[in-house]
Specification:
This protein is α/β, with parallel strands linked by helices. The chain has 15 helices and 14 strands. The strands form 2 sheets. A 9-stranded mixed sheet has the order 6-8-7-9-10-11-12-14-13. The model has no long low-confidence stretch (mean pLDDT 90).
């Protein structure tokens, strides 16, 4: 059997949802491996469990190949094709519809198939618009989402024998898009990533949302890529574009463009949360790229600040591990220049999964005591009992200091996670 990266995290999620009566919705950016996950990894699993191959019906809708069945993006043609494959009412069928958003009115077909007793339905989509706020309505409360991301660093290291420091350099430069496995030289990798931006992602957003100013959309994407790990909002981005590129785009248009790119799963915004005040600041966020290689390619590899890239990778790893992630603010009253003042301290991440909660600082290097205290200041101002962690770019041995703050190396975190301590 052909060897490939198993994507065990996602396979486990699919297995846990098998035959649960719900529509499994696999989302994520284009070319992130959704099709491979279902059409190869999950199909191989089902066949290994004794499911006849003819009972696994796979339809790829993101293609111009109409073969002998006609245009399957037409709902009625697609329905006829699927039912023609379901030969027996006594057999159980697994139906996989890849890039289902290409079909107008797909929800009627999907809901109808799911209502049958002998079907288990899986669909993929590269745009969250059709399944965000409306998911409970269009799938009648029976939609179960699995978000697929590009390769994590751990997946990226599968079957690789190079020193981990060399693998890290490659990963933070080119990222984890699965298609890179077929690109053998740096030039090929750069061309592939830039082709994804120009011929796949931007084209898709422009076409889907009827964007008239493609140049402005691209410039706005550059601005988001440049600002990873920094607090920003549409007004700030508008001002940056005006001052740096002499491009006038109003904040409402910027806000719409950000939404489009988030819906295409290219960026995620992390809200700012006041830890002591127990409130969110809706007007400002930090944005992170779903893949640092795509981010670097969008900027022509001009801005490769490893500190910001490390922070982005940590954010992505937390999200892939099932955490919701906010950026934190601790506001305390202190003496400054002989006067009482409110001072704000930043916490890089507040990660929560319902049972566990962590306050996390990303520190590329802690070279001296001054830097150490700088990283600890915000954590020491938090007076609750949730765990506090500093992830250090250096390859250090894990330890916990006398204040209960845990220090761990980046590679340990990326390969083993936060653990249960």
């Amino acid at each position: 059997m052909e060897q490939y990266i198993q994507r065990e995290n996602y396979l486990r999620q699919l297995i846990a949802r098998r035959d649960n009566g719900e529509i499994k919705i696999i989302t994520g950016p284009r070319r992130s491996g959704k099709s491979w996950l279902l059409n190869r990894i999950y199909k191989d699993y089902l066949i290994g469990e004794g499911v006849p191959e003819e009972n696994i019906i796979i339809v790829s809708l993101d293609t111009d190949d109409e073969e002998e069945f006609g245009d399957l993006t037409d709902r009625h043609t697609l329905k006829s094709y699927i039912y023609s494959r379901m030969q027996s009412a006594d057999s159980h069928y697994y139906i996989i519809l890849d890039e289902v958003q290409e079909v107008d009115g797909f929800e009627k077909l999907v809901n109808g198939l799911n209502a049958k007793d002998n079907t288990d339905i899986y669909i993929t989509g590269s745009n969250s618009h059709f399944l965000s706020s409306d998911i409970k309505t269009i799938f009648r409360g029976r939609g179960d989402e699995i978000r697929v991301c590009p390769f994590s660093f751990k997946e990226f290291c599968t079957d690789r024998t190079e020193p981990i420091s060399e693998l890290w350099k490659e990963y933070y430069t080119y990222g984890g898009m699965p298609g890179l496995l077929k690109q053998s030289t740096p030039e090929q990798k750069v061309a592939y990533l830039q082709r994804l931006w120009n011929k796949t992602y931007l084209d898709d957003v422009v076409e889907r949302h009827h964007v008239k100013n493609r140049e402005a959309l691209s410039a706005m994407a550059d601005a988001l890529c440049s600002s990873i790990g920094s607090l920003t909002n549409p007004n700030r981005i508008s001002n940056v574009l005006k001052s740096v590129q002499n491009m006038k785009i109003d904040s409402e248009t910027i806000s719409n463009y950000i939404t489009y790119l988030e819906e295409a799963f290219l960026f995620e915004g992390a809200k700012r949360y006041n830890i002591k005040g127990n409130k969110y600041y809706d007007s400002i966020k930090k944005y992170y790229a779903v893949d640092v290689g795509l981010r670097n390619a969008k900027l022509n590899f001009r801005q490769q600040e490893v500190t910001h890239i490390m922070e982005n990778v940590i954010y992505n790893e937390l999200r892939m591990s099932g955490f919701t992630v906010d950026v934190g603010l601790v506001e305390v009253r202190e003496m400054r220049d002989g006067k009482q003042a409110y001072i704000q301290y930043e916490v890089d991440f507040i990660a929560s999964n319902g049972t566990d909660k962590y306050y996390i600082q990303s520190a590329f290097a802690i070279d001296d005591e001054e830097k150490r205290q700088q990283e600890l200041n915000s954590l020491l101002k938090i007076d609750d009992s949730f765990r506090k962690i500093v992830i250090v770019g250096n390859d250090i041995a894990e330890y916990t200091d006398d204040k209960g703050i845990r220090f761990m190396g980046l590679f340990q975190f990326l390969l083993t996670g936060l653990g249960s301590r």
